[in-house]
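Protein modeling request. Please complete all fields; requests missing the sequence field cannot be processed.
Requester role: graduate student
Desired output: 3D structure, token encoding
Chains: 1
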Amino acid sequence: MSVLTVDGALTPKGYQQVTSLAAPAALTVPTAANLALIQAEDQNVRWRDDGIDPTATVGIVLEAGKDFWYTGSLAALKFIQETATAKLNVSYYQA
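Delivered output (95 residues):
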């Protein structure tokens, strides 16, 4: 479960669905967005935010159907699918 809740303190800045995750994929971050709610759909994905590309076996696992709030550098995030057909749903906000 996520610990942050969307309320009057967060301003929505956009949404993105990433469907091409066979190779490491970065996000297209809207201007002024500084946090994101990220959800894996259909298959698990892996992510890294340290400047090194994740692989299908290396990186932090985000299980399909799970979500998390990310408040670090959104531009540094990269994702890859563990198995074909993974999707990523991302809602961007400004705090």
